[in-house]
Each structure stands twice: as structure tokens, then as C-alpha cells.
Amino acid sequence: MFESSFNPQSALALQRREAMLARVAQLRALEERSAQTSAKSRPVFDKRGQLLPRERVALLLDPGAPYVPLCSLAGYLQDHKDPARSVPGGGMVAGMGFIGGVRCMVVASDSGIEAGAIQARGLEKILRVQEIALENKLPFVHLVESAGANLTQYRVEGFVLGGSLFRNLARLSAAGIPVITVQHGSGTAGGAYMPGLSDIVIMVRGRSRAFLAGPPLLMAATGEVATEEELGGAEMHTGLSGLGEHLAEDDRQALGIARDVVRRTGWQTAASAAALAAAAPRFERDELLALMPAHHREPVDMREVMARIVDGSELLEFKALYGAATLCVQVHIGGHAVGIISNNGPIDVAGANKATHFIHWMCQLGHPIVYLQNTTGYMVGKDSEQGGMIKHGSKMIQAVTNASVPQITIQCGASFGAGNYGMCGRGYAPRFLFSWPQAKTAVMGGEQAARTMQIVAEAGMARKGITPDPAQMQAQFDQIVNVFESQADAFYTSGLVLDDGVIDPRDTRAVLSFCLDTCAEAATRTPRRMQFGVARM
Hints:
- The chain is α/β, with parallel strands linked by helices.
- The protein contains 21 helices and 16 strands.
- Helices cover 43% and strands 16% of the residues.
- β10 and β11 form a beta hairpin.
């Protein structure tokens, strides 16, 4: 039985709690900024008899059922470098939730912002959620009303890589995973292939549009004159071209039809008895706010974090006395047997070997692995190098790369250097990856990087007989620290879609339980895989 030594009322704990709460408040404000910016278009939507994007998502999902938003900060500090002007989201709303009892991936164009144009990081966001849907066998439900690519931010690579969006729709359908589109508004040029590559399309009379070339382009290219309705209206597509299967009178009816379509897939899975019977942790989840330090140099025992996440706070530690800074623990989360790997410091030779052994053991048992990242990387130094750190670290990375069980990563604290790789960072394709608000991701700490560059610069000057200018060296030092620290910030990396979202630490158990349920459900689903997707008649 794990006994906690953490005092949530200590001065240090209260200081950490306030710092984390401030970051959570900033996160919620950024999320609300997207919703409020979109809601400014309400008069336009009301005039057209339409629902706002988030209202559509709310009506589509089962009321009261769990929902996990994904990549909510996509594009933050990428569209505008000024934090006060940057609107996160990438031009869409995305998340996992339930429709008619079926666990699904839901994506909605945020057409209240720039008519739903896909932002640069929005493309990466939708590619990521398509990947999640494919790997976890989640029906893909797309609520489309988009002006297409944002031409004011046009980059040729965005156009070229944008083809992957349509390729993934074909891959989903070919894998036997339902692809369902509700066409709330326009889909022009490449956007027309969103319904075109869907298994089922629902259109709204007088609002839905889908054409390869709109009336202006058609006239410019061929001289032909046609109205939007003639070229790509809902009635034409449901009655003549065959692009649409269902014709709705308004958004509400369209979403009701979509719910009925998903419900009739028969993909409902009852909640496992184990999950329902799972014991809650013995310690308060609110204490997670006060555990993680704001700076990675302050120590924290990650067992304390685990004890506030896992069932009954029961931890079975693996090789507790060997490679003690690397924690390998068997637990249950939401009734699922899971292995957790975490860090109480750098990963040394013993820790790397221990983690490798543990990963192999979890694969033999068929238990998912959860990584709670909190490391400055692999140990450096003469003793470490002579002890074979490179080869032993490589064995750990081999194990992470080729693990045969689902892997889920939570970036709780520092995620520096190759420690990011060995602890299943984004480059190692975990099923899901979420960050805590104070997490930091970088090749190394800012001060460490600046000091390294300073040593190199001073050595170079010494070889040339140049005396360093202290003021110039300090300015360079400060600049490097600022660059590293700003780019290491969890909100910045999430804006680059380097995680699946930033979460409140108090929600960690709920998010992990949802993701573990998703992985378990995917293992039981056996879609009828085909060599091709469903072709439209």
C-alpha cells in the first residue's frame, strides 16, 4: 500500500498550486477565446437559420457522455505572434465522444471564424485526428462548412500535403471504419472531396454546396453561367448527382439523421464491468495541482502523482531498488491493467535497462503502457559513457519503438533531449499524448543551451586571441534562454500540434480512463477491411 509523504498544506505545495491554477486559468481563457470569437458570427448564423459550430457538436453528441477535446490550442502563436491576438483551434473543433452509444471521432469546421477556412496548423490537426480514428477504429463524423484552405496564408507545401486529408478518408473507409459527413455549408474545389470520399453524406436544403468550381471560376474557365444550386446544391446532389444520401431541412434535422446513421452501425460497446467497479484513488485529485514544480530543477516523487491517478492508489513497483530514478510500476486505471513508466531524475544505465525489461514484460502481458514524462534526459558524464549509456539507452528506444501494446504519454514536467524519445514522445507515435500546463519540451534547458553556446563561443575567441565582451556575451546568453524557454512552453508546443491537447492535471485520470477504454474497444472491433473505400454510385 502506497503511503504518501506529501503535505498539501505546506508553503511549497500552496505556491505550486497557485502557479498551476494560473496556468489552467490561462488554458481555459484560450479555449474560451476560440468559442467567443466564433460566437461573434451568431447574427449571421441566426439570419441563415443555422446553428453555431459548437452547438452542432453539442447536439450531435450524447448528452452527459464523456468527451475529450483534441488539439484545442492548434495554431496558437502561429497565426499571430502576439499572444493577445492569436486564436487557437486551427479553424476546427475536434474530439472523441459518444453518438448513440458509439465512441466516435467528431470534427467540425469552425465556420464562425474566417468562414471555417483551414489554418496551417489546422491541416496538421485534422491529419492527427484522422490518424487517431484509424488506429483506434473510431467512426469519423465530419461536420463540414468550410471556405477551404486559407489563401492569405497560402504555402505550396500546405496544398501538396493537404492531399493526405483525402487519402486518409479513403484509408478509413477501406479499413471498414464508417466515414460520415454532414454538409452544413460550402465545400469547394478540394473541399468537395470531403463528402465525395465519405460513406454517407447528409445535406441541408438551401445551405449545402459542393462543387469543384464555383460559379465565378466556372465562368472564368469555360464561360458557362450557372447558379450555385445548379452546380452543387443539396437538392441537386441528393436527387441528381448522387453525392448525398439524406436531405435535411435544417441543421437540427441533419444532426438527428447523423445520430441515427451512427446508431444503426451497431458499433455500441457496453462499458466493462471492471471499469465500473474500479476503485477511486485514496488521495484527492486536487492535490495534483500542488505536486508538480514550476521549474524542472525542483525534485518531485512521481509516485505521488501516480497515487492520485490510479485505482485505489495501489502501486506494484518493478525493480524498486535498481535504477531507482526510473520508476516502473504496475497499476490499474479505470479497471484496466496498465504499466506506468516515469522519472524521478535523469535516466541512467540501470534505469534504461530496467525500463527495457519492463516494456518487454508489459508486451508479454498485453498491458498498455503509460509514460508520465518528467526527465531532463539520459545521464551524461564519464562514468555513464563508460557504462554504455548509448547502447543501453538505444535498447530502451528500441523497446519503445516496437512495443506491441498501446502506449499513452502524459508530459507532466520536463521532457528534454533523448529523454523525450525514450519516454515515448510525439516522434514515437504514442496512441495519445497530452501535456500538463507547466510541461516543458526541448532538446535541453534554456540555461544549459545558452551556457553550452557561451563555452563554445569563448573557446573560439580564445583560439583567435579575442577577448570576449561581457555585455555582448550576456546579451547572447539571454537571447538563447528566451528562445528556448518560449518554444519549450506547453502552450507553444501544443499550438504546433506536438501533443493532442493540454489538460488540467486534475483531469488526468478521466482522460487516461477514456483513452484506455478507447484502446480496449479498438482491440475488440473487427471492421470488414476492404482493398478500397466505399465508392459513390
